[in-house]
Amino acid sequence: LNPAKWVGIVSRIGWPYLAAAGLCLVVFSSQRYAAGFAGTFLPMFFAIIVAAIVSNYALVLTFHLLGYLVYQYHDELGFDPQNERVAGPLGQPDPDQEILDETAELVRDGDPDGAIQVLRNHLNRGGTEAVHTQYRKLLRLKNDKEALLKHGKAYLPVLLAWNKPREALRLVDECQALDAGFAPPKAGQVTDLARLAANSGQPQLALRLLSGFHQRFPKSPDIVENYLRVATLMHERLNQDEKARQLLLSLKTRYPDNPLMPQVEACLASVERMLAATGTQAAQPGPTPAP
Q: How far apart are CA 10 and CA 18, in angstroms?
């Protein structure tokens, strides 16, 4: 009943709200036309039945339309399409359910800033995955990129400690969309996540994770493994065989005694066969590029 709520919803959703409203008008106009058409060509008794069916159908259709609109933009509206109570292990409520309920109430009352502060204070002492997820949803609602990145840096090691690498990978992808320089702080974490990204069909994410790895971790034993992975992705996924060739030659020159050198040489042979098959002129040997 509060018009300010309407304005808030429209401003958060934007033009799709107006498009949905226009579509509702089209549905209701079509309903009126169909009812008039039935009254013209059908006996009154049957016309009333047809008009009632069309009217009810139009009403249900518009409810579904608006329901889908709310679902599609639930992040912007601060809603969660899941059950109100978050299920934990064996169907038990989330241990932090009281905090989740409190912040949900604040959001419903139009105070997302208060909800963010409650969650932030709680997370300073630790929190469940549901609390972290809700906190990030509200930060996205406020478009607070700085807070999202700050939380991402703190949350990433937590997800890895919880043995949730896929969730950690999604977090890295989201944070890199905000800051291309975002990366895990430890070499082993970078290696594990890059391996998962490569194996799950996300070559670009794997390459972003491994960019500049040898500069960030010059003493890491994973350098050859990671740049072999980069060259393999370039060769098999990205059609960048010449770049892959140069990188593999660099690995052969710099790390000739590494245990992975047989895989490096096998990959190099595959790359050179592809270059020969496509008629690409291999670059003349020159200064060996850094990995």
A: 8
